[in-house]
Amino acid sequence: MEFTLSGFEPIADRVYRAVAQPASVNIGLVVGSTGALLIDTGNSPAQGAMIRDAAQAVAGDVPLTHVALTHAHHDHLYGLAAFEDLDTISHRGLATWLAAGGPGPAELARFGMTDADLAQPTRTFGLATSIDLGDCHAELIHFGRGHTDHDVTVVVPLRRVAFFGDLLESSAPPACDEASWPAEWPKTLDGTLGALRRGFVVVPGHGAVMDRETAFMQRAEIHWYHDQAVELYDAGREASGAWQQDWPWPQEPSEAFVAQALARLEASGRPRTRKRSLTLHVR
């Protein structure tokens, strides 16, 4: 597997974004007057070292001091070992997942790694924490479950930038798997997006930067998909075969999202008590 990194491009005042391949993940860099913060670490320790060198070159005389992790998926976490001497921060749910066994040997082997290559964050938090970078600060916030149960948004108020990890994507529909919480995802986005002023740069986990209004549109799509899942659940139907051409997303990500929403509804024990006509279209 070949790991590459684009150059860090400016997206705001002393805030930068690079793209790490092969997963096309956005890596963030915020340079303050006394320290610099990196957001996410790439797919492997080797790629993490590549990212570190490139970030420090951009930061210049300002030392790289902190790393924030948005969640535990490979393209965001697996490079962490290249930063073990820094202050590396995640939600406590990420550390709990690692302590419980993490990705497992087969998953790590895909990236040429073993358990010894997978680092733990040096500190964790539950709801929010702050990082002082001198002339600005970054707020790390967990507003709730969505893409995972430990998603972290990194907001830099004075620079008017927010990094959302995979709670948002602009290059494809948001990825949803067995670790996702579709019903809670829109509320989690409401907590973050509602706190941002107009003019903020919104950095998704993958794809080009977004504005606040475009991010709210994706939040609305996520909510719409969960509504479709509720309709299907109450009608006793499955995700397969439900997709229609006027749905906002292509068939595969649509069915993946709805299937996970149905699984969560089933696990919750929600009764199918309401009989409704199934309206599965977008106007």
Describe the structure in your own words.
The protein has about 280 residues and is an alpha/beta fold. The protein has one domain: Ribonuclease Z/Hydroxyacylglutathione hydrolase-like (Metallo-beta-lactamase, Chain A, 4-Layer Sandwich), CATH 3.60.15.10. About 30% of the residues lie in helices and about 20% in strands. It has helices at about 45-60, 75, 90-100, 105-110, 185-195, 210-235, 250-270; strands spanning about 5, 10, 15-20, 25-30, 35-40, 65-70, 85-90, 125, 130, 135-140, 155, 160-165, 200-205, 210. The strands form 2 sheets. Strands 1, 2, 3, 4, 5, 6, 7 and 8 form an 8-stranded mixed β-sheet that branches. A 6-stranded mixed β-sheet has the order 9-10-11-12-13-14. Strand 3 (about 15-20) and strand 4 form a beta hairpin. Helix 5 packs antiparallel against helix 6. The radius of gyration is 19 Å and the shape is globular.
Entry keywords:
6-stranded mixed β-sheet, Metallo-beta-lactamase, Chain A, alpha/beta, 14 strands, 8-stranded mixed β-sheet, globular, 29% helix, 283 residues
